[in-house]
Specification:
By secondary structure, the protein is of the alpha/beta class. It folds into two domains: about 5-190, NAD(P)-binding Rossmann-like Domain (Rossmann fold, 3-Layer(aba) Sandwich); about 190-285, N-(1-d-carboxylethyl)-l-norvaline Dehydrogenase, domain 2 (Orthogonal Bundle), CATH 1.10.1040. It is built from 16 helices and eight strands. The chain has an eight-stranded mixed β-sheet with strand order 3-2-1-4-5-6-7-8, with helices on both faces. The protein starts with a strand and ends with a helix. The site of nicotinamide-adenine-dinucleotide (NAD) has 23 residues, from helix 1, helix 5 and strand 6.
Length: about 325
């Protein structure tokens, strides 16, 4: 059974992965090469826990308990040497991840399972420098941002790992109330990101062609397909609507839709102009940067409300008994 966890990289994803396990009582070591980041991340995690308490996602009394479950490291070997499960959430650079996994293979116990949170790299290439034995204990576990709120994790089951090890990892994620998506082929982007990119490609194309204003395009998604997607997946929607209809509409529409093989040119132009979205004050919409932390908070708040309204939401205490 997995009890002791290490998270490698304390950035956007790593700190929220550590936070998520800590509120469910897991013992977590959080490591980063950047000592300034390690010095500051505890305060950031504390503020996020306080916000979760304000939103009644956790009890106020759980804040200090969760904080005490996380230890902070800048020495990799110390961070991982007694761990059962190590999640790499370092930058998306193949060579960096290969070398990191080589060190983890050396520093970790024989039974330790190594996981990568990669968004786009192949498992096979990330395993290039690790031993044959460790290959059987290596998995992609892809979280979604913000990790401590989004209820999904995608798990690889690509044939390198025996089923009993996969089931241990699945059990770990079920114990923190994640919905596990088992992915059977070693393809970049796994499942959820590929679906999202398909939608985003058409959305960027619609705005580029001037078919609707940005707020109307987002409204069409939010109150159209995405409104159903929050409760019912695409394949079930197709079944409910009738596959014959989906076939006819597909033949009519797909030939006039965007099929480009690289990022949209309007998107690229905005990036070149420094219009990066909230972080620069303008993207498709304009933002008052003084309010940026409030805007982010409101985004998280809406996700928490949606999560609580979901039929799959399980009170945290119920799941704690599973550890
Ligand atoms: N940001 C997202 O929305 C998102 C979502 C899912 C998956 N991912 C994936 O998660 C991983 C991390 O992404 P992120 O957005 O958290 O990145 P980030 O840049 O926010 O954080 C990366 C952290 O890793 C640290 N780091 C750099 N070199 C390191 C090393 N050699 N060892 C350990 N730590 C090191 C950095 O100091 C930084 O704190 C990437 O593989 C990314 O593709 C990101």
């Amino acid at each position: 059974m997995i009890k002791k966890i290490a998270v490698i990289g304390a950035g956007t994803m790593g700190h929220s992965i550590a936070l998520n396990f800590s509120i469910y009582g897991y013992d977590v070591n959080l490591y980063d090469t950047n000592s300034t980041r390690i010095a500051n991340v505890e305060e950031e995690i504390k503020e996020e826990l306080e916000f979760l308490a304000e939103e009644e996602f956790i009890e106020p009394s759980e804040i200090m308990k969760a904080l005490s479950n996380i230890c902070y490291f800048t020495d990799l070997q110390e961070a991982v040497m007694d761990r059962d499960y190590v999640i790499e959430a370092a930058p998306e650079i193949l060579k960096l991840k290969q070398e990191l996994f080589q060190k983890l293979d050396e520093f970790c116990l024989d039974h330790t399972i190594l996981a990568s949170n990669t968004s786009s790299l192949n498992l096979e290439s990330m395993m290039a420098l690790i031993s044959n034995d460790r290959r059987k204990k290596m998995i992609v576990n892809h979280w979604y941002n913000p990790g401590h709120i989004m209820p999904i994790v995608e798990l690889s089951f690509f044939g390198n790992m025996p089923e009993d090890i996969y089931l241990k990892v699945e059990h770990l994620y079920k114990s923190i109330n994640k919905q596990c998506v088992k992915v059977l082929k070693d393809i970049p982007g796994l499942v959820a990101n590929r679906i999202q990119q398909g939608v985003a490609r058409e959305v960027f194309s619609i705005i580029e062609q001037g078919i609707a204003a940005p707020e109307d395009i987002d409204k069409a998604l939010q109150f159209g397909p995405a409104f159903r997607y929050a409760t019912t997946g695409q394949l079930e929607i197709a079944d409910l609507g009738g596959l014959d209809i989906w076939c006819t509409v597909g033949d009519n529409l797909l030939k006039v839709m965007d099929n480009s093989l690289s990022a949209n040119s309007l998107l690229r132009r905005k990036v070149e102009e420094g219009k990066l979205g909230l972080k620069s004050g303008e993207g498709f919409f304009k933002y008052n940067q003084e309010n940026s932390s409030e805007i982010r908070k409101r985004f998280i708040q809406k996700l928490i409300h949606q999560l609580k309204a979901s039929e799959y939401y399980v009170e945290k205490k119920t799941s704690l008994n599973n550890i």
